[in-house]
Design a protein that fits this description.
alpha+beta; eight-stranded mixed β-barrel; 15 strands; 18% strand
């Protein structure tokens, strides 16, 4: 294997001269494209040191991630501005692809600040092509410095990854998705956005972008609210749909769906028979309006959700939190509060059984109810919460809601964003989410919808 011990710095620098010629040509020049991948013929590239022996002993500690994953401008996903930005992004990535794309980064060992590694120039060139690292930077430097770390953070934020500044397995997998694959992903999502835009326009609506874990409320064609959300875990996918918000339920009971009861709760009760008491859940016979049953009289290993129903009392322990947003649909999903609020601080938030949990949901509820008689003044929602009594608001002006699946988009300022294909709907395994072994552990599965 080539290494600095056998190859020497002078040889490495000489090899990089070839690389510098490619940069001088630039993305717009034909030389890179006509010779294929410009980096393949460089001596010693492709034979990096995987032992870590050259890594600096003075590595920086792990970077504390600052969660910055909500879109920052007023432009909605459903807008002509978004379509134009997407078309510009497709043109840019097509140009990158036709000029040879970007290098694949070999190996699977983590790269982080303080490392010295022959793969670092690959990483520098890769980030220069898509703009996270300035093209004026030197990519012949094999040291992973703080400037490169900042560029990796920027890349991770644009790709929905934990922004640690380290090239871990999920980051490496995303970096190695080819330019052609990104073009295809952008085109696919342009089609999804175009379908949304072609729907009859509404002045007020809510849209949840499921793989981006965010919600936007749109009023008069401008986004007025954005919220982080928790969506369905793989296998309990949050569906794509259009529905209508017709009511808001404060201090709701939770009628546990049959699928959640059968797959999640009944097996848990075999091991934890006191779980129902701790969570203030009643057992009902036949349907949710039937007589209450004694839980100890039921063999939970044989229970059937079509016969035995579960109903959770209102309160802070309720899986729906303190408010439910009613949006009847064939999938039986809805939006709601949650008692598990720390989960909103994780970047990847596919934890639910299909419903959508909304951070700071009472702000959204206040906006939904703001056009209703007696609800125009701020503070009405808080007043209801303070009273602690169940209350249903029937909306006289229902609000449309869209659950969309958008894994790539572009902002009007040219920033291009990608997200892992958490449900495998993009048709390319390269886009799938890669397990991050260092991410916070997911919550234990149970009642939460």
């Amino acid at each position: 294997m080539g290494s600095l011990n056998t190859f020497g710095r002078s040889g490495l620098r000489a090899s990089f001269a070839v690389l510098l010629i490619a940069v001088a040509v630039g993305l717009s020049g034909p030389a890179v494209a006509q010779d294929g991948n410009w980096y393949e013929g460089i001596t010693s590239f492709g034979s990096p040191d995987y032992t870590g022996k050259r890594a600096s002993l003075e590595r920086t500690p792990p970077r504390q991630e600052v969660l910055n994953d909500l879109r920052a401008n007023e432009v909605p996903y459903r807008s002509d501005e978004m379509l134009v930005a997407m078309e510009n992004a497709i043109e840019l990535y097509q140009r990158i692809a036709s000029n040879g794309g970007w290098p694949q980064i070999p190996g699977d060992r983590m790269l982080r600040a303080g490392d010295s590694d022959e793969r670092v120039p690959y990483l520098r060139r890769r980030l220069m092509v898509t703009g996270e690292l300035p093209k004026s930077s030197s990519y012949s430097d094999y040291t992973f410095d703080t400037g490169l770390e900042a560029a990796v953070v920027s890349y991770q934020e644009r790709n929905g990854l934990r922004a640690t500044g380290r090239v871990d397995k999920p980051t490496l997998a995303a970096l190695n998705i080819t330019a052609d694959q990104r073009v295809a992903q952008l085109k696919l999502n342009h089609g999804r956005l175009l379908e949304l835009v072609r729907s009859p326009p509404e002045e007020r609506y809510v849209l949840v972008n499921v793989p981006a874990f965010q919600l936007e409320a749109v009023d008069r064609y401008r986004t007025v609210l954005r919220h982080r959300v928790i969506v369905g875990r793989p296998g309990r996918d949050t569906p794509s749909l259009k529905a209508t918000i017709r009511a808001v339920n404060f201090f709701p009971y939770w009628r546990v769906p049959d699928s959640v009861a059968q797959l999640d709760v009944f097996p848990r009760l075999v091991k934890e028979p006191d779980y129902l008491q701790k969570e203030r859940i009643r057992v009902i016979s036949g349907d949710f309006n039937g007589p209450e049953l004694d839980p100890s009289s039921i063999d939970w290993s044989q229970a059937r959700a079509s016969v035995v129903k579960l109903k959770q009392d209102p309160g802070p322990q309720n899986a729906l939190g303190l408010v439910r947003i009613d949006m009847q649909n064939e999938h039986g999903v809805y939006m709601h509060d949650t008692p598990m609020k720390p989960l909103f601080q994780q970047r990847a938030r596919a934890f639910s059984a299909g419903c959508v949990r909304v951070q700071d949901v009472f702000q959204l509820v206040e906006w939904l109810a703001s056009l209703e008689p007696g609800w125009g003044q701020p503070g009405q929602v808080q007043s209801v919460l303070d009273q602690g009594q169940a209350l249903d608001i029937q909306l006289t002006r229902p609000v449309p809601v869209y659950f969309a699946y958008i894994t790539a988009w572009a902002e009007p300022d040219g920033r291009v964003e990608f997200r892992p294909d958490i449900y495998g709907r993009d048709g390319n395994t390269a886009m799938a989410e890669v397990l991050d072994p260092d991410a916070p552990p997911p919550p234990s599965q149970g009642l939460a919808p």
